[in-house]
Amino acid sequence: MQPRTQEMTTAKKLSTLRRAMLEHQIDAYIVPSTDPHQSEYPAPRWAAREWLSGFTGSAGTLVVTLHESKLWTDGRYFSQANAQLADTEIGLMKDRLPETPGIEAWLGSTLMSGQNVGVDGRVVSEAIARRLRKKLEEQELNLIVEEDLIRGIWPDRPDVPSKPVFEHDADLAGETWQDRIEKMMAWQGAHDLDYYVVSALDEVAWLLNMRGSDIDFNPLCVAYLIVGTQGDHTLFAAARKDFDAWTDKVGDGQTLEVHDYKKISSFLRRINATDADIGFDRATISTRLATYAGNERSSHFASPIPAWKAIKNDAALGHLRRTMKQDGVALLKLFSWLQKNNVTEAEVAHKLTELRSQQPGYVTDSFPAIVGYAGNGAIIHYRAPEEGSARIKKEGLLLLDSGGQYTSGTTDITRTVALGEVSQEMKENFTRVLQGHIDLAMAKFPVGTTGIQLDVLARMPLWQAQLDYGHGTGHGVGYFLNVHEGPMGIHSRVDAPNGRVPLAAGMILSNEPGYYKEGTYGIRTENLVVVREADRAGWLEFETITLYPIDRSLVVEDMMTRPQVQWLGDYNSRVFDELSPLLEKEDLAYLKSLIV
């Protein structure tokens, strides 16, 4: 009998995994961060990498051989990983640095020719499995995808979640889910598909206007949806009583059946046996399900849904603009409260959640708030511990990155504020970050421009001082969906496909350059922007929709150009005009103090 989880140290878990590897003749086992739907933030059932290693970052891959173990993660998490892996055998591999070998190359140098590398085919996508198999074959290694070794060693592994779901009202979404299903059926018909497997959770949520809480901070239901071109649709999810809103209201001549989440494999095998033409997206379907769908003869079409949901309709954008006012009020109350109280980072995070929850339509936060005081601000994805988090003093810098999930939109904002005396270096670097933020916000660009083409605008003021930041400049944002959403993005990485997606009117992205001095301070200024048509045909521009003042006490105006100074003044004035009618006397006075 296996020991209970709470009694198992990381060393014990790795030892137990290695026994399972020996039993299945696997010489190295890869544990990714993903779930069967390729989610960025998996439900607890699929948090195997975190359970094994103790590393809690959202991105990372653990590789365990019979003699050693390594964890690959990117620059956002180097500091966090160093701390969380310190008392374990697991070595940190700093991904994307020139000196760090990739997983396949490292395995090739560690294992002998003909040895076996395992990964759970239930959680690795068909696209990744194909690339991994090819690279391992080049190293004369074999890939085994049949074994879920974690299942046999995790004694109290959480179940597939089954929390309540609800329909996102069409007045808020701007479109009925029945219309979206019809659009999907038409697309399938145009591609001669009998069925299409929708695997990504946010795609299921968007297509059905379905929202849930199966995953913290993400209003999603863990489910698959198979859309039938003839109107026979099937949802696979853990049992719950809330699906009548869909099964009873599907369009004329259509049916929507609900089956147990684990039955999708047998369902795909059955319809595959009828020679039905089944389509799926290799990037989001697991390699195991791809096999059941008839992989080699199935139709591999990238899902059209990410491109559809990236373009927010006018109704959604109208609701989101109002939501930005509410979110700005909550943040204003938070900083006003912080001025008067001696608190810790964790207490700030809790207070902000409380203040957001008082706003209309609030459902949950969109991610755990990053409240980084002084040196903790340099940890890009820092999360203050409940016990022992830093007490905030009346000096230095505080970086606060946070957001909310409202039925009327998703928010994400970062502000860096001076709490008292700050150094000239801090002011100059804050100004450089702000210059990059403003230059990107003011950009006008021709239709067809991609994020990778725009990224340099945000970095140039820092580059001129030979400074940089190790994360993307902007990510797509969902509408009451995931705070990180594709298919577009703004960053400098040439190997990332979302940087090559042309921006289009209606897309929402973040604008968030930063600078981080390890152990000393962090700076980031983030607003959300909407891509819109410019005043000349064939051109686009950004509309900044986030509403909260930028701290002028940190700005060295002599470093800025006249248009940059004008933008800052106009932005803060607009914030005042938008928020002041919503504020009580005391909060209004605080807002005035920030604008002056």
TrEMBL record:
Transmembrane segments: none
Domain Peptidase M24 C-terminal: 538-592
Keyword Transcription carried by entry: no
Origin superkingdom: Bacteria
An example Gene Ontology molecular-function term: aminopeptidase activity
Positions of the Creatinase N-terminal domain: 14-141
Record domain Peptidase M24: where: 319-533
Protein's UniProt keywords contain Hydrolase: yes
Coiled-coil regions listed: none
Keywords linked to the UniProt accession: Aminopeptidase, Hydrolase, Metal-binding, Protease
InterPro entries in the record: Creatin/AminoP/Spt16_N, Creatinase/aminopeptidase-like, Creatinase_N, Pept_M24, Pept_M24B, Peptidase_M24_C, X-Pro_aminopeptidase_P
Alphabetical list of Pfam families matching this protein: Creatinase_N, Creatinase_N_2, Peptidase_M24, Peptidase_M24_C
Matches recorded under CDD domains: APP
Record-listed E.C. numbers: 3.4.11.9
Record-stated family: Belongs to the peptidase M24B family.
Protein name: Xaa-Pro aminopeptidase
Organism expressing this protein natively: Neolewinella antarctica
Species lineage: Bacteria, Pseudomonadati, Bacteroidota, Saprospiria, Saprospirales
